[in-house]
Amino acid sequence: MSEPVKTLPLVFEEPPRRGKPPRHLADLTAAERKARLEELGLPGFRAKQLSAHYFSRLVDDPAQMTDLPAGQRQELVDGLLPHLMTPLRTLEADKGTTVKTLWKLFDGALVESVLMRYPGRVTMCVSSQAGCGMACPFCATGQGGLQRNMSTAEIVEQVVAGARALARGEVAGGPGRVSNVVFMGMGEPMANYKAVIGAVRRLTDPTPDGLGMSARGITVSTVGLVPRIDQLTEEGIPVTLALSLHAPDDELRDELVPVNTRWKVAEAVEAAWNYARVTKRRVSIEYAMMRGINDQAWRADLLGDLLNSYGDWGWVHVNLIPLNPTPGSKWTASDPADEREFVRRLEAKGVPTTVRDTRGSEIDGACGQLAAVDD
């Protein structure tokens, strides 16, 4: 690179904040929900009914919860289904099949989620932090800094809200259901590990305790927090791991992904390989293609050799992402010819490679564009 990249300092610890999000049934296990109601002097068995309304029936209006006693209904709802977030704005693209929502959290923090409908599936891209502390210079979220971690319930609510909209036929294409969730919105999921794993468990818990999704439909991304990848390996939840690599060499990755100054390329890739080895789940390598920065043919060769050094048993898949523009950024997407050559070089080395179908760039809803600005 011709000039050094100026990046913000890495932030691993959550900044101090006032108050915490209200406790919601999505924060709790089934047993904890029952105990919570009993603490409030309410019948514990009602927790199952509230869970069914939230996760199975996707109800958000207490008046529709007619199996709850009218005189106690509001008290039960306040106890386990407090209001978590308010939609401030929705933007649509792709003829209404891509919908970005700007949410205001209880303390005024802003986050965004994106619903993307494809033939045969619906993917929710969710945020796990308000802002991000990883400071990647080509990402709008990373340049905004970290405000705070989100709670498990705040993460889950993004998916449930999408599920409600689909069930009610409010998304182009008619009624449907969420089939996939990707933790690729605002924030570094592994830096909010406890809440993210809690959300994964709520999403995969059988109904009515959770949404009943398949873990294989959930992708958790990371820029390479190696200790947390190792922790995820031992969780026993077969989600897809996505490692946002963006460069195969330490010299460049130190600049593009500042966490690389703590855990180098080889460490991050080895942790990802070990995840694949233990879980038998293929890892996705995310690679944003940037013109003249990381898209050289020799870097494709280097990446292919790096991934093949762990064997050719199909443990990995490379997902190339045409860089999405952000206002005032000097970073631009690769020339299509360079992108094609990059793909050719990887495939020549036997590495499965695809170029991501970018959705929502015109509404700043694509990868690297989420900035949660209320204007």
Walk me through what this model shows:
The protein is built from 11 helices and 12 strands. Residues 1-5 have low confidence and may be disordered. It has 2 domains: 25-80, Orthogonal Bundle (DNA polymerase, domain 1); 85-363, Aldolase class I (TIM Barrel, Alpha-Beta Barrel). Helix 7 packs parallel to helix 9 and helix 10 packs parallel to helix 11 (336-348). With 375 residues, the chain is of the alpha/beta class. The protein has a 10-stranded mixed sheet, covered by helices on one side. The protein is elongated. 31% of the residues lie in helices and 18% in strands.
Task: Identify the notable features of this structure and list them briefly.
single chain; 375 residues; alpha/beta; 2 domains; 10-stranded mixed beta sheet; two-stranded antiparallel sheet; 11 helices; 31% helix; disordered N terminus
Q: Could you name the CATH topology of the largest domain?
A: TIM Barrel
What proportion of the residues form beta strands (DSSP E)? 15-25%
Got a strand count? Answer: 12
Please report the distance between the alpha carbons of the first and last residues.
35 Å
Number of domains: 2
Estimate the mean pLDDT confidence: 92
Name of the level-1 CATH class of the largest domain = Alpha Beta
Q: What structural category arises from helix and sheet content?
A: alpha/beta
CATH architecture of the largest domain: Alpha-Beta Barrel
Compute the number of helices. Answer: 11
Largest sheet: 10 strands, mixed
> Which regions are unreliable across 5 or more consecutive residues at pLDDT < 50?
1-5
As a percent range, the share of helical residues equals 25-40%
Rounded to the nearest angstrom, the radius of gyration is: 21 Å
Shape: elongated
In sequence order, what are the helices and strands, one letter per element? HHHEEEEEHEHEHEHEHHEHEHE
The strand line-up of the biggest sheet is 1-2-3-4-7-8-9-10-11-12
Relevant CATH superfamily of the largest domain: Aldolase class I
